[in-house]
Amino acid sequence: MPKDGGIGASTLRREDIRFLTGKGRYTADINLRGQAFACFLRSDVAHGRIRSIDTSAAEAMPGVLAVMTGADFTEVGGNPTGWLVQSRDGATMKEPKRPVLAHGKVRHVGDAYALVVAETYAQAKDACEAIVAEIEELPAIVDMAAAVADTTNRVHDECADNVVFDWGWIEENRAAVEAAFDAAPHVTTLELVNNRLSPNAMEPRASIGDFDSGTGDYKLYTTSQNPHLTRLLISAFVMGIPENKLTVIAPDVGGGFGSKIYHYGEEAAVLAASKRLDRPVKWVCDRSEAFLSDAHGRDHVTKIQLATDTEGNFLALRTETLANMGAYLSNFATCTPTFLHGTLMAGPYKTPHVYVNVKAVMTNTVPVDAYRGAGRPEATYSLERVIDKAADELGIDKWEIRRRNFINPDQFPYQTPVGLVYDTGNYHATMDKLRELSDIAGFEARAAESAAKGKLRGFGLSTWIEACGIAPSNLVGVLGCRVGLFDAATIRVNATGNISVLVGAHSHGQGHETVFAQLISEKLGVPAASVEIVHGDTSKIPFGMGTYGSRSLAVCGSAMMKAADKIIDKGKKIAAHMLEAAEGDIEFNDGSFSVAGTDKQKSFAEIAFSAYVPHNYPLETLEPGLEETAFYDPANFTYPAGAYGCEVEVDPETGAVDIVRFTCADDFGNVINPMIVAGQVHGGVAQGIGQALLEGVVYNEDGQLLTGSYMDYAMPRADDLPNIDVDHSCVTPCTHNPLGAKGCGEAGAIGTPPAVVNAVIDALRRGGHGQVTHIDMPLTPSRVWHAIHG
Amino acid sequence: MHDFELVKPASVAEAVAALAAEGAQALSGGQTLLPSMKQRLAAPDRLVSLLDIPEMRGVCHGDRGLAVGGATPHAVVAREAAARYPALAALAGQIGDPAVRSRGTIGGSLANNDPAACYPAAALASGATIVTDRREIAADDYFQGLFTTALDEGEIITTVHFPIPERACYMKFEQPASRFALVGVFVAKYADGVRVAVTGAGEDGVFRWTDAEDALTADFRPEALQGLVVDADGLIGDLHGTPAYRANLIAVLTKRAVAAA
């Protein structure tokens, strides 16, 4: 198979043709006959009791078709959280109801409490302004420490101290960890904030509800990363619409980064409004609304301690974290700071004793949930920062302290003290590769050049590991997950040999249509151009769990491989009949079925044609057709890992940080399309640099969002970013999936922030400002300058 | 955005007449006004666009220095002022992004007087004269606080006269999100003295740093600023920088502007 289309080829992305020529079809591009427009009225106070809502004036306005409030949704269920997490005292977590529209109370600025549907969007918006609501403002709960301390002021009445759970991981480790700390020659302590981020996908959310009164069927077009999960949540938890009467379609989706994993109230609301009016109802979020309603990410306040001996060997690690949930529990909110964070606190190191404590706190802010990396960036950041601090305190080289503590290549599979079994890895190899690519030998000369310009140069190192390929269903079930996390694929070989592959994963920027076609091309020996990938429509695709957690290739790709194996098995049976040979003698290679040791063969297309025109076919033992479905439930997480190096120049007069060099050495297991992998890393690094230097959601003490637009929320732009050198030549293939693939989507967002912050602290230390041991992200010029100058 | 009427006069006189109506608002590029209207923070009944008035567009050179028409977009100033007044052209070329520079105008910027806008620093440091449909206003009298100017209701900036300095430089330190000036310092050296104007930093908008002006008038070298400090009192403190940080930036940027002028 020539490498222009199969595994290992940097095939250009076929979807880019439509994306780059304006032919993409996003939810907002869809206009249904007779559609009306919805606009949501959102709270402008952070916390308040709704005394009354008078909709009469709004209802009388031109074009208004319906006004709905929380009272219209009291009979339907709440939007659930996907994981139930137990507190360390054994208590089950609190799960306050999240209604479709706020009822009784509003709990954050942006909390929707009414909906207007009108003939036009402008009419709906005008009518929203005519709704008269009497809202008794309550004191806003914004700061997590204050939320926990003040038990009289509650976001939800059923959550007495605003704490959802107080989780210990692993509780049985705690005594050993305490003992190790008591006996340790050296303890390094660091308190840090993992800053809250706003996801800002290029395409804002949008939803169209379309109820068909003729059939009783509902259709929802929506910006989702996982249409089947959205359907399940709406069907089983919120609206009670049977799955077979509800189709969820996520067409082209312009980025998600986690924020479009979740089911949002707007989706249920447009379905309900469509049924009431017997017309399609469309809502398109504007950017200001997105800042106030898309789930935010991160927002941890952490104290981390690392116990070492005097040689820098890690003896024990413990963390205490307050994790902000916001005003409601979003679907993965409780999982992110626990099972995607605490389980990764060992990192790539053989620290024998680790204990993690996380308190999940409700506040009057936008709900917080998984955002690219989800828990793993928070774990990596804490760990890699405290290691650098320990190295400085102990006077040990930053590379050496890591090398000394890495799990060695011969120790796999490796059971960590925080519940995971790493199947394979080679952390020395990626860090050595990084060192080689970073031109460490030339650093001093570059630092001298910087000094001549009055700049301080520093180098920051981070290593990272993540658990992705989410996830083994039986394991996550034990941990409190309410769904399975397998994925599924159907391979439909058409009569003339071309192929439709229907997949549970959803592509919203990842390039699945290209990569998945490469997989099938390689596996079945057909041209990639003859393979079409179908995703995003629950009426077409098998029940898969969508795309997040770097899972699409490792999980859905594996399902595709299983389905392809079934196709090949059936093809062999057909070929055996046609070639009058024993099935066991049929070989399949490069798209051809042949009788071993002979020149007798049938092409893939001939076999497909025979399956659909079964004139010469073993009908008594074999069904016609060539279509197979496989579900794949991973045996373990996958564990990609790597090492990142960041070189910065700091202007000590202004505090400005310029990233002048950035290098990534990753082990993603087997790589299908190196170009797309590089692009994924570039994007993740951009978001990581955004978090480290630029981005941060800020609320004032009244719970008003101060960073509600791009005037104050700094997104990374091209000129904020360096050239990014990407290497993924160090490969330890995943041992338990058929592709040996691990996942690459989140790597950049995980490994980057600590590398950047470590680099700035290193620059300051080298520049004579060693008193600065930490600066909280984002490292804005003002913060860096104050760190230097007080 | 609410409905509005759009009027496109072809002369200053027509524009003045159109602005006399109740609820009328001048539109001179709209880079602030239109986003405000989209967010329903502003809802004028009538917009009077100044962009189709030939006498208000373009850059020319005369006895009073550079004359820039009030409706001249930043991109045109960046191009056409480059030979005579490169510091002004450079400032115009750093405003916003290409789309903003193609639509936004000098008159719109000066009339709006955003405390973080760039043009006010150039006008004040240059001792410019703001010419309106009814009078001339010296820059020193023109800027009167946040979003506040000497303009009367319905008064239109037709031309801005910039005396051309011997040396000048604008140093802008961008606010990372908006890329407006977190602090911007315009230094202009004239035969009769040096003027230093600061934008982005003052709670009352653009202001002159007179201590620096005196020092630089005596000795136009960065070293002349040694030991001069800006009082953080009265400076803006926000998400992006404390008053103390802004005070530091003023000193640093002034020094760098002098070095580069």
UniProtKB/TrEMBL annotation, chain A:
GO molecular function: iron ion binding; oxidoreductase activity
Protein name listed in UniProt: Xanthine dehydrogenase molybdenum binding subunit apoprotein
Keyword terms, alphabetized: Molybdenum, Oxidoreductase
PANTHER family assigned: ALDEHYDE OXIDASE 1-RELATED, XANTHINE DEHYDROGENASE
Domain Aldehyde oxidase/xanthine dehydrogenase a/b hammerhead: 21-139
Plastid in keyword set: no
Organism: Cereibacter ovatus
UniProtKB/TrEMBL annotation, chain B:
The keyword Flavoprotein is annotated on this UniProt entry: yes
Gene Ontology molecular function, alphabetical: FAD binding; oxidoreductase activity
Highest taxon in the source lineage: Bacteria
UniProt keyword annotations, A-Z: FAD, Flavoprotein, Oxidoreductase
Keyword set includes Flavoprotein: yes
SUPFAM superfamilies for the chain: CO dehydrogenase flavoprotein C-terminal domain-like, FAD-binding/transporter-associated domain-like
Domain FAD-binding PCMH-type: 1-167
Protein's recorded name: Carbon-monoxide dehydrogenase medium subunit
